[in-house]
Design a protein that fits this description.
Elements (H helix, E strand, L loop, with lengths): L1 H8 E5 L8 E5 L6 E10 L3 E7 L2 E6 L2 E4 L6 H7 L12 E6 L3 E7 L4 E5 L3 E15 L2 H8 L5 E3 H24 L3 H6 L1 H17 L3 E12 L2 H21 L8 H15 L3 H24 L8 H19 L5 H12 L3
Parallel strand pairs: 1-3
Antiparallel strand pairs: 2-7, 2-11, 3-6, 4-5, 4-7, 8-10, 9-10, 10-12
């Protein structure tokens, strides 16, 4: 009876059967009992076991069965100053860390992310998608997230700031990838593959591997989408009004640039769009005049008026930084030769 009682005081089998599927870290409940020297530690696939001595990680065990002896606990043996063959029971905390992959975790930007676009200047974007993760470095992950908690669940991790880290580093990676708004929208499903290697170094510091990162949608705020639609409709209306060709190069980029400048400076979208359209149409008319000019040496009064108006608008483009001095002088020379 005495020996049976003593055996119950010592732990001789240590294992974790995870039935939750969402637990990341689990502390073996020792109930203040000591571990028997020679106890059997069973670590299953997708698990890593840590021996923690007075709050510090000692020995780490991969999947398999391990006999806890001085030979198999080199770090703990050294910390405790045990001699070879030491056989007394000992007290230590045993933590299991799950290394399985967790998939289809949601992420999203609660507030618009300001992204620099080569055509629209600063653009506020909203995005959401899914990601997958798993613990790659159990000791590092334990130090970063466990603290003194006996159990850490996936939801606690995500709500404790991990999802915010994903969003923050997504914003940084999106800026670094150099994609324009048009490219982002056209390649949203492939964008995750571009961003994943940019995101991974930040999470490696936490002992975590991002196994996948998917961008399901990237959108502009509703009010800006409405402005762009209105600008497009205005452009189509003015094209029909003056009978311009549908093959004007880079006009869409020019309008987007002017609208983006207005957003950045807080100007009214409609006024900025109208100004951009008027200047852009002046440039278009200059191109059209060049293509359709008659061989006669003299321009009509109507053509002279159009040429002078175009020169004025080209000057505005130059002053706005859209045309270089050389481009302006070249166009000016071509137009003046028709007067």
């Amino acid at each position: 009876m005495v020996f049976s009682f003593l055996r119950r005081q010592f732990i001789d089998i240590i294992e974790w059967v995870d039935e939750t599927r969402d637990t990341l870290i689990w502390k073996f409940p020792d109930e203040d009992r000591e571990i028997k020297m020679g106890a059997q530690l069973t670590v299953r696939e997708s698990q890593v076991a840590l021996l923690v001595n007075e709050g510090k990680i000692a020995d780490v065990y991969p999947p398999g069965r391990h006999e806890l002896t001085t030979r198999n606990m080199p770090i703990l043996t050294n910390l405790r100053g045990w001699k070879y063959g030491f056989e007394s029971p000992f007290k230590v905390d045993v933590y299991f860390v799950s290394t399985r992959e967790f998939q289809n975790l949601r992420w999203g930007t609660p507030q618009p992310v300001m992204v620099e676009d080569s055509e629209l200047s600063l653009v506020p974007l909203r995005a959401f998608g899914t990601f997958g993760m798993k613990v790659k470095d159990a000791p590092t992950f334990f130090r970063e997230f466990a603290g003194t908690d006996p159990v850490v669940t996936l939801e606690e991790l995500l709500e404790g700031g991990f999802r915010s880290l994903v969003v923050t580093h997504f914003s940084t990676a999106l800026k670094r990838c150099g994609r324009t708004l048009a490219e982002i929208n056209a390649q949203a499903h492939q964008l995750g593959e571009v961003l994943l290697p940019l995101l991974q170094p930040e999470f490696s510091r936490l002992g975590v591997e991002l196994t996948r990162f998917l961008v399901e949608s990237v959108t502009l705020p509703e009010e800006i989408q409405k402005q762009l639609v209105e600008q497009d409709l205005e452009l189509r209306r003015l094209r029909r009004k003056v009978g311009l060709s549908q093959e004007v190069q880079d006009m869409g980029k020019f309008i987007q640039f002017q609208a983006g400048q207005g957003m950045e400076k807080g100007e009214g979208g409609a006024g900025v769009a109208r100004s951009a359209l008027e200047m852009g149409l002046g440039l278009q008319m200059a191109q059209q005049l060049q293509q359709n000019a008659s061989p006669s040496p003299k321009a009509t009064a109507e053509e002279r008026s159009q040429i002078l108006q175009t020169l004025k608008e080209l000057a505005e483009l130059k002053n706005a930084g859209i045309l270089t001095e050389e481009e302006f002088e070249l166009k000016k020379k071509e137009l003046l030769s028709r007067l």
